[in-house]
Write a structure and sequence with these properties.
Layout lengths: L16 E3 L6 E3 L97 H4 L7 H7 L1 E3 L15 E8 L19 E9 L6 E6 L4 E4 L2 E5 L2 E5 L2 E5 L11 H12 L5 E5 L2 H9 L3 E5 L3 E3 L4 E3 L2 E5 L1 H9 L9 H20 L1 H4 L2 H14 L1 E3 L5 H11 L7 E5 L2 E3 L6 E3 L1 H12 L7 H16 L10 E6 L6 H12 L4 E7 L8 E4 L4 H11 L6 E3 L10 E5 L22 E3 L8
Parallel strand pairs: 3-16, 4-11, 6-17, 20-21, 20-24, 22-23
Antiparallel strand pairs: 1-2, 4-5, 5-6, 7-10, 8-9, 11-16, 12-15, 13-14, 17-25, 18-19, 22-24
Helix pairs in contact: 4-5, 4-8
Length: 582
């Protein structure tokens, strides 16, 4: 019987586990207002310890006297949700205290919920795995690997800003049982890269896959070493996956490359190897996948008939590595089935079957933290918890997996950026436009602009505007002027240099008799209604409108607000829907 069946559905199932300081056992307390009956207690006793070996920690402000919290478990004490086994013995047996062994001191703070971070290609299921788990802080902190990289946020994250996390799966053969995977001599390339963007208001998220064989420019990047810092020179026109490992590049270099490519500043990274898929899927009891046809892939060693299957461990890894037997047989096809797999994993993580099982949550946390390497800015369980609780506000129906639009290169082995489709997609992410809510966003945008933008438009050749740079981008006014004159035919435009002060948002100030010119310029630049600032006095003679570029400026020709509709042909998968691999 759980809290919900007792009419108390506001209680998290994990909150019913309470440590009894008298016995040292975690007890399932259904009625938190009174003592727990002996029938509801865990049955494994704790071996008594001499009083002289135990010291009670002082009670900190906000703590409850007499109640301990999970920290490192002392020998013989049960882990929450694992009734038949003791901490320190993963096989399920009972390990007696070692004679003469020094007893660990009592934990200092109450039990706390914390984030269950995944590793590698599924690290961003933080959206699903941040609720209802007890994490023993010291234990899981020791599992995490951290790397201090240039460019990563040092203070975790900010609640009033969008969050961008780069998830990297490497092809390095680290970890037990991975000798047969990846490149034998690889230093660890960015084999799988997903930029996980969460909107400022936490209503939507986009997980953008970046093809490893995309030809792009890798910029100069600063790396931190034991001897200080050094700058690694960039490389032009090379594979994206060489942004990691090659020439000593660390994940910070991959973060910098993603920023140059998409225009989005990456706040943090998460990285893992092949073990992440195996351990995480095993921890949740398998992930359901759907096949539209039989798959027999000799390279990944996946052999499954058409239909639905629940995969975990080695078989799950084989599924996400499969490419020759699905789609067009290349890396882009592999990206598609990875996105389908991760969508299914998110749904499994959000299911009551997982959230209501303390054992699964514990195993999941253990697997995730051991598989994960993160930047030092989020290298503490407490910071991951805070971040995860914030990101968990996003509903899976508003999480979309997409892939950077590309076209085949002439060499047949690499791909090139499809700028016509990629730039609008990047702009949508920059402006927090959800790929799952484009129809509503489009309607809202139309409604806002109906008043100011309803009416005639002047010809581009008649638009007279003075351009000021109030953004942080050097040369923005000149770049915009060049684009307006050469690409759009706005010849009566001028570059006025820097504005008196920087602005957060782009503004267009115009006179009543210039409204038709303002509408035309708004159309060309994708200006929102909020950017239009009509005056009260008519313009005289050759008086020009004033366009001041703000911090929302993304580049000449890039719409300020971003398009309300995703470009046709952009590959995407919605996290709340199951798609069968073809």
């Amino acid at each position: 019987m759980d809290a919900q069946s007792r009419g108390r559905d506001e209680i998290d199932p994990a909150d019913q586990w309470v440590l009894n300081p008298q016995t040292g056992n975690y007890e399932l307390r259904l009625d938190q207002s009174g003592p727990q009956s002996s029938a509801a207690r865990t049955t494994a006793p704790r071996t008594p310890a001499p009083r002289s070996s135990t010291r009670r920690s002082p009670v900190a402000p906000g703590e409850t006297p007499g109640r301990e919290t999970p920290g490192r478990e002392a020998p013989g004490r049960q882990v929450p949700g694992q009734r038949s086994r003791r901490a320190g013995n993963a096989s399920g047996g009972t390990t007696p205290p070692t004679a003469g062994r020094r007893k660990r001191k009592q934990p200092k703070s109450r039990k706390k919920k914390a984030l269950l971070w995944t590793g590698g290609v599924m690290a961003f299921i933080v959206v699903a795995g941040s609720v209802g788990a007890y994490l023993v802080y010291q234990h899981f902190d020791s599992n995490l690997n951290t790397v201090d990289v240039a460019g990563a946020g040092s203070g975790g994250f900010k609640k009033d800003q969008a969050v961008n996390i780069l998830v990297i799966g490497t092809d390095k053969r680290s970890g037990k049982g991975n000798d047969g995977y990846g490149d034998k001599n690889s230093v660890g390339h960015a084999d799988t890269s997903i930029l996980f963007h969460v909107s400022k208001d936490r209503t939507n998220a986009t997980a953008l896959s970046i093809p490893r064989d995309l030809i792009t420019d890798i910029p100069d990047c600063e790396t931190k070493t034991a001897d200080g810092t050094k700058v690694i020179g960039g490389t032009r026109k090379t594979r994206f996956n060489e942004s990691l490992g090659q020439e000593g590049r660390d994940p910070g270099c991959t973060m910098r490359t993603v920023k140059e490519l998409t225009g989005l500043t990456v706040d943090h990274f998460m990285m893992a190897d092949f073990n992440a898929v195996k351990s995480m899927t095993t921890a949740v009891g398998g992930v359901e996948v759907c096949l539209a046809k039989d798959i027999h892939d000799k390279d990944s060693k996946l052999n499954l008939p058409a239909g639905k299957h629940v995969l975990e461990g080695e078989q799950a890894l084989a599924f996400v590595r499969t490419r020759h037997s699905v789609g067009f047989g290349g890396d882009l096809s592999r990206i598609e089935i990875q996105q389908q797999f991760l969508s299914s994993l998110i749904r499994k993580m959000k299911s009551s079957d997982t959230l209501s099982s303390p054992t699964k949550m514990w195993d999941l946390a253990e697997a995730a933290t051991k598989a994960l390497t993160v930047d030092s800015g989020i290298g503490k369980i407490s910071r991951l918890r805070d971040l995860g609780m914030e990101l968990s506000k996003v509903n899976p129906k508003n999480i979309t997996f997409a892939t950077v639009p590309v076209v085949d290169n002439t060499d047949g082995a690499t791909v090139l950026l499809n700028e016509a489709k990629a730039k609008p997609l990047f702009s949508m992410m920059q402006n927090d436009t959800s790929l799952t809510e484009v129809k509503q966003k489009e309607q809202d945008a139309k409604n806002k602009q109906q008043t100011l933008l309803k009416g005639s438009r002047a010809a581009a050749s008649e638009v007279r505007v003075a351009v000021f740079n109030g953004s942080e981008t050097q040369g923005a006014a000149l770049a915009t002027l060049t684009w307006l004159q050469n690409e759009e035919g706005v010849l009566k435009s001028s570059n006025e240099g820097n504005a008196p002060q920087q602005l957060a948002r782009t503004t267009l100030t115009y006179a009543p008799n210039q409204a038709d010119q303002a509408r035309k310029l708004a159309d060309l630049m994708g200006l929102p209604a909020e950017a239009l600032k009509p005056g009260t006095k008519d313009a005289v003679g050759r008086e020009a409108m004033t366009l001041t570029l703000g911090a929302d400026y993304k580049g000449a020709g890039v719409p300020i607000t971003g398009p309300a509709k995703a470009p046709e042909g952009v590959q995407k998968v919605e996290a709340d829907k199951q798609v069968c691999a073809k």
